[in-house]
């Protein structure tokens, strides 16, 4: 049987934390039950806990939901127990250029439909500019602006784009969490800002 990792060198098969290495990026695939709260999925929670605990710098989370990993949290929904309740792009404006030296936990809505629902659940009516394809780009630009050299970004979604090489970010690790045949994987990207 073939594998998605057939073309990469495998390190230490048989253990839960094993990974394949491809172009310097650690690749790993796990299975876990789906959950609308990303960080209640065990392999994802373990990844976030590991990265945040290994850093002594400032961590921010613009889409925190119920998560409490970051030093400064934000969520659009007014009932969330976060430090701020505003649009993510406005949350980033609370920080100076290169102020974030720990990292950013970046877990936005994964689709336009999810984004629309987030606004509705928060009792807001989004305009087209807030739910179009530029939404992620504007927020990625802000991540680049606030991060200092060496900061980490933990990016979650249905793709492995991350913040991206064109913005100065280098991929270190990709964790794919499979939730079963009828659901999209959650793809987790660990990147380092290296402008």
Structural description of this entry:
- The protein has 195 residues and is α/β, with parallel strands linked by helices.
- The protein has a single domain, classed as Rossmann fold (3-Layer(aba) Sandwich).
- Helices cover 23% and strands 24% of the residues.
- The chain has 5 helices and 9 strands, in the order E-E-E-H-E-E-H-E-H-H-H-E-E-E.
- The chain has helices at 42-53, 88-92, 112-121, 128-131, 134-146; strands spanning 9-11, 19-22, 25-31, 59-61, 72-73, 103-106, 152-157, 169-178, 186-193.
- The chain has a 9-stranded mixed β-sheet with strand order 1-2-3-8-9-7-6-4-5, with helices on one face.
- A hairpin with a 7-residue loop joins strand 1 (9-11) and strand 2 (19-22).
- It is globular.
- 30% of the residues are buried.
Keywords:
5 helices, alpha/beta, Rossmann fold
Sequence of strands across the biggest β-sheet: 1-2-3-8-9-7-6-4-5
Biggest β-sheet: count, sense, barrel? Answer: 9 strands, mixed
CATH architecture: 3-Layer(aba) Sandwich
Shape: globular
Number of strands: 9
Helical/strand content category: alpha/beta
Mean pLDDT: 86
Regarding CATH, which class?
Alpha Beta
**Helix tally?**
5
Q: Return residue spans where pLDDT drops below 50 for at least 5 consecutive residues.
A: 1-16
State the domain count.
1
